[in-house]
Amino acid sequence: MGAGEVEDVQRDEQLFETKSEGRGRLAYRVFAATVFLSICGVWAYRLAHILSLLFPDYLSDPGSGSGYKTGVIGETVVKKGTTYYYYLLWSSVGMFLAELVFGLYWVLSQSIRWNIVHRLAFKDKLSLRYEEKLPRIDIFVCTADPEMEPPSLVINTVLSVMSYNYPPEKLSVYLSDDGGSKFTFYALLEASEFAKHWIPFCNKFNIEPRSPDAYFAQQRRANVQPTAYGQECLAIKKLYKDMKKRIDEAVKIGTIPKDMKEKHKGFSEWNPNVTKWDHQSIVQ
């Protein structure tokens, strides 16, 4: 096997690609260098300020004629041993320590900014190589109020995660409704039927995004060609619109269709005493 063939094999086995961020790197490094010099200047100034207090000059007291130790702050002479002297000393030490810590933190943070790289994972290769080792995943979609969070919006999230490009036997999706709304349950039943068409459609044509509402919103801005994909897309879109219309109408009139109530015994859990503030645990 030649060197070129070995290189091709290694490229095929790569699970990700690393790219360096080239734009603006030199400008950022110049900026970082100037900031570092400024930080060093602040450290030097603060340290010199502390040293001027710890090791003051010997000045003469004109009144007594004797020498006493003083600290010189700019043009102000501070007598050593006074309360004001210790206040200046310890406040200066505290400021220096704070500036030292924040300065060192800034220096350490440059390790991730000095040479920025981007890694692009090859998801198809990851799936092929580690599909049998992928863990089981439980996804919880939470909602609480069918008025603030319409059921038709909630099930878009549910359908999106149900259609993940992940082994279906290792993926479980749960919808948790803290408000205990029967309309959320009804929307989930409708979504479970629609998912039988939506998920195969997503897998067949590698659809992105996988939220029906977001995907069909994109399609409104594009011309769907009369191909096999176009015909199937229009059929799925019609199914979605019909489902969404049924859910929105049920929420609007406040009643679940009779045929759906008879189809699933789960609706028997709801009675006139059930409210979103007071309801028993309902697991379906």
How would you characterize this protein structure?
By secondary structure, the protein is of the alpha+beta class. The chain folds into 2 domains: about 15-110; about 135-270, no CATH class. Helix content is about 55%, strand content about 15%. The protein contains 9 helices and 7 strands; from the N terminus they run αβαβββαβαβαβαααα. Strand 3 and strand 4 form a beta hairpin. The relative contact order is 0.08.
What is the strand and helix layout of this fold?
Elements: H1 3-13, E1 16-20, H2 25-54, E2 58-60, E3 67-73, E4 76-79, H3 83-109, E5 117-121, H4 123-130, E6 137-143, H5 151-162, E7 171-177, H6 182-205, H7 212-220, H8 228-253, H9 258-263
Parallel strand pairs: 6-7
Antiparallel strand pairs: 1-5, 2-3, 3-4
Helix pairs in contact: 2-3, 5-6, 6-8
Uncertain segments: 58-75
Number of domains: 2
Q: Could you say which structural class the secondary elements and strand pairing correspond to?
A: alpha+beta
Rg over CA atoms: 34 Å
E-strand count: 7
User: What is the 3D shape?
Assistant: elongated
